[in-house]
Design brief:
By secondary structure, the protein is α/β, with parallel strands linked by helices. It folds into two domains: 203 residues, Enolpyruvate transferase domain (UDP-n-acetylglucosamine1-carboxyvinyl-transferase, Chain, Alpha-beta prism); 208 residues, Enolpyruvate transferase domain (UDP-n-acetylglucosamine1-carboxyvinyl-transferase, Chain, Alpha-beta prism), CATH 3.65.10. Helices cover 31% and strands 25% of the residues. A four-stranded mixed beta sheet has the order 22-23-1-24. It has a four-stranded mixed beta sheet with strand order 2-15-17-16. A four-stranded mixed beta sheet has the order 4-5-3-14, covered by helices on one side. Strand 20 and strand 21 form a beta hairpin. Helix 6 runs parallel beside helix 7 and helix 10 packs parallel to helix 12. Bound molecules: ligand EPZ. Ligand EPZ binds next to helix 1, helix 5, helix 6 and helix 12.
Length: 419
């Protein structure tokens, strides 16, 4: 298995470019199932998860040409002739479940392997299924597959107990090509949900209220393929900002979607840092004496849960005691033991982590347990004294496009050892 070797405490300098958003690209690729004609998606990041979604579409019968060099994906969904997303693919990427809504709307049939658990706790799909049932689908579980069938979906009034990103997106996609009006209450407001709605509207969908907690979708008979450029990745941008701060450096982050990072930047300002915002970039201005902070990871527009672990890694060397509360997942602190092995002092109490800032962390052999836990270890390693060996970096490859090359280009001593 590949690993990263990082020699810490190297100053970073220059410009680092943000790629397209993983969590938007994956859903937009899934949404092309709703179309009948070829379409080109641009700013598609080169990631394991994107390659998995490409395979899912190919398994369904679509023809897909992906050019990582140009970040473009050409998809011809007109040849789709299967409704089954197989276990081998869904088990490696839960987002494969996002093909259920489009398949049901277009073909009245979908068979998707149950996604199962995940390294940071259970992640059920009950909201997705309840919503599709409310829209008329009959759902059964057969041999580990969720089978959904319907003659014709019908719009309905849907309420989510929690603003689930995936369920909101799945329903938006299905409802766009469904008779009648669908209203989603307590919808997710994430920028990636808005990006998906923007794409669908460009293709002719009638969607109102995306980005708010009430989304109204009036189904149309047909959507028309329109080329689209994916939004920049706010989580990658946030990770680069933390890489800059962990090394007390002033990086310029090109393409940072500042509008989607408001609370994150606000919290870093509470630490004492500053940011110079330009039209298409953000320059990090680190404070010499950063201070501990408190925050709660919440659905958007709250502090993003996907930046919770990288932020914890950064706060490990910030003076005082910081407090992080995780409000989205039951158990997203599995990375703490690895940070503590590098000398961090983090104590867990339920969904709260108390971080007492240390003078420095020390390089050590560590293991990534999931994507953002892996990103946290990269941040810790960049700021640590000595050399860190990060194992199981396949988790990091799922969500960071060209991370080693991008960080090396701004002065980090990071290499991938192929194993
Ligand atoms: C998306 O996952 C992202 N993934 C996650 O990013 C992100 O952490 C998450 O949204 C929250 O922002 C993709 O977009 C591919 P949810 P999703 O449905 O849609 C519970 C990363 O690192 N829930 O909003 O699966 C669930 O268990 C990843 O890039 C139910 O109980 O997240 C969780 O506690 C990881 N039943 C909460 O809601 C359901 O049917 C939020 O999940 C659905 C969700």
């Amino acid at each position: 298995m590949d690993k990263f070797i990082i020699k810490g405490q190297q100053k970073l300098a220059g410009q680092i470019k943000v790629s397209g958003a993983k969590n938007s690209a994956l859903k937009i690729i899934a949404a092309t199932i709703l179309l009948n004609d070829p379409v080109t998606i641009s700013n598609v990041p080169d990631l394991m998860d994107v390659r998995t979604m490409k395979k899912v579409l190919e398994k369904l019968g679509a023809s897909v040409e992906y050019s990582p060099k140009n970040s473009t994906m050409k998809i011809d969904p007109s040849t789709i002739n299967s409704y089954r997303a197989p276990y081998e693919l869904v088990k490696t990427m839960r987002a494969s479940f996002q093909v259920m809504g489009p398949l049901l709307a277009r073909f009245g049939n979908a068979e998707i392997s149950l996604p199962g658990g995940c390294n940071f706790g259970p992640r059920p799909v009950d909201y997705h299924l309840k919503a599709f049932e409310q829209m008329g689908a009959k759902i059964t579980t057969e041999h580990g597959y969720i089978c959904a069938k319907v003659d014709k979906l019908i719009g309905n009034h849907i309420y989510f107990d929690f603003p689930s990103v995936g369920a909101t997106e799945n329903v938006i996609m299905a409802a766009s090509l469904t008779d009648g009006v669908t209203i989603i209450e307590n919808a997710a407001k994430e920028p990636e949900v808005v990006d998906l709605a923007t794409f669908l509207k460009l293709c002719g969908a009638k969607i109102e209220g995306e980005g708010t907690s009430r989304i109204r979708i009036e189904g149309v008979k047909k959507l028309h393929a329109r080329d689209f450029t994916v939004l920049s990745d706010r989580i990658e941008a946030g990770t680069f900002i933390l890489a800059s701060l962990a090394t007390n450096s002033s990086l310029e982050i090109i393409g940072a979607p500042v509008f989607a990072l408001e609370v994150f930047l606000e919290k870093l300002k509470d630490c004492g840092h500053d940011f110079e915002i330009h039209q298409n970039s953000l320059i990090v201005k680190p404070s010499k004496n950063p201070k501990a902070i408190k925050f709660t990871a919440q659905p958007h527009p709250g502090f993003p849960t996907d930046l919770q672990a990288p932020m914890a890694a950064y706060l490990s060397t910030v003076e005082g005691t910081s407090l992080i509360t995780e409000g989205v997942y039951e158990n997203r602190f599995v990375y703490i033991s690895e940070l503590n092995r590098m000398g961090a002092s983090i104590e867990l109490d339920g969904n709260k982590a108390y971080i007492t800032g240390q003078d420095f962390l020390s390089g050590a052999p560590v293991m990534a347990s999931d994507l953002r836990a892996g990103a946290a270890l990269v941040i810790a390693a960049l700021g640590a004294k000595g050399t860190t060996e990060i194992n199981r970096v396949y988790h990091i490859d799922r969500g960071y496009d060209g991370l080693v090359a991008k960080l090396s280009a701004v002065g980090a001593q990071i290499e991938r050892v192929v194993g």
